[in-house]
Design brief:
single chain, about 300 residues, Thrombin, subunit H, six-stranded antiparallel β-barrel, 3 helices, about 40% helix, disordered N terminus, disordered C terminus
Length: about 300
């Protein structure tokens, strides 16, 4: 009702008889104020004071607008920060993945470098092969390599890594081969002590970190730290390949033999790239010539 009454009174003022005179009065007053503002210093000074008095009101009126802008900026900034944070986390994970791959490649390069140095110590022809499988049976120490009969792999060929002898080929298929490790309980390898030439047999015990020398006399000169190498006997392994290092010598006065434990030089459970030694074939003996007796 009040709003309706106010509208009616305003319409009455401008539609009444005195509306023209009132409008003309307001127009003259506006021109006088503009002229005074232009030519009177006191009016300008008064306007400055009036503006000073109205400044707090202007601030109060502007507060909601500023608060709305700041809240909007905070919301936008938070959204941008969340997106940037997610992006940075993704980039950090990518960089960490690349760093891990680089570390793996660096380790692999180091192993290949050691393997190359090991191949230089071998006089026979060697071929780089890769381990692609391990026998899951804990009682059989066997590995599978990625070359077979199509690559001229044959039974009995020695398998090495950068540290020393790993085993020998026992099964050959077209594209893969199976090798028995020297730690297999069924494996025996003719060896000798590099320091003094004492010969023995290195037997597997079914443990990746330990072998044992068979029938070592109590009087044999064997010491901890001695290097054990292949003796070349048996024709499977050429002489001079590192096999193990003597880790423990147990002498029992009541026993005729000394128990000698040796630790393999090869990294049997870590090496992936290996060397397959191509043994030269033994020359065939010429067949005897049978002279035909003329009748």
């Amino acid at each position: 009702m009040l709003r309706h009454t106010g509208r009616c009174s305003i319409k009455t003022i401008f539609r009444g008889r005195s509306s023209g005179r009132f409008f003309f009065f307001l127009l003259i007053l506006a021109f006088l104020l503009m002229a005074a503002d232009l030519y009177s210093a006191k009016v300008r000074e008064g306007r400055a004071y009036l503006s000073l008095l109205l400044t707090p009101l202007q601030w109060v009126v502007d507060v909601p607008s500023r608060l709305a802008g700041e809240v909007s900026d905070v919301v936008v900034d938070r959204s941008l920060l969340l997106k940037e944070n997610a992006k940075l986390k993704s980039e950090a994970l990518q960089l960490e993945r690349k760093a891990q791959q680089n570390a793996a490649l660096r380790e692999e390069n180091d192993r290949l470098r050691l393997l190359l140095q090991g191949s230089k110590r071998v006089d026979e022809e060697v071929v780089l092969v890769e381990l692609i499988g391990v026998n899951p049976d804990p009682f059989q120490h066997q590995v599978i390599i990625n070359q077979g009969s199509e690559n001229q792999v044959k039974l009995g060929l020695p398998l090495l890594d950068a540290g020393g002898v790993m085993g020998q080929i026992t099964e050959v298929s077209h594209y893969t081969s199976r090798a028995m490790l020297i730690t297999d309980a069924r494996h025996a390898l003719p060896v000798e002590i590099n320091r003094n030439g004492f010969r023995s047999i290195a037997l597997g015990k079914g443990e990746l970190e330990e072998l044992e020398l068979e029938h070592v006399p109590d009087t044999a000169d064997v010491q901890e730290g001695d290097l054990v190498i292949t003796s070349g006997l048996g024709g499977r392994f050429p002489r001079g390949y590192p096999v193990a290092v003597v880790s423990e010598v147990i002498r029992d006065p009541g026993q005729p033999f000394t128990q000698v434990k040796i630790k393999p030089s090869a990294l049997l459970n870590k090496s992936r790239h290996l060397l397959l030694v191509k043994m030269p074939e033994a020359p065939r003996e010429p067949e005897p010539v049978v002279a035909e007796v003329a009748e």
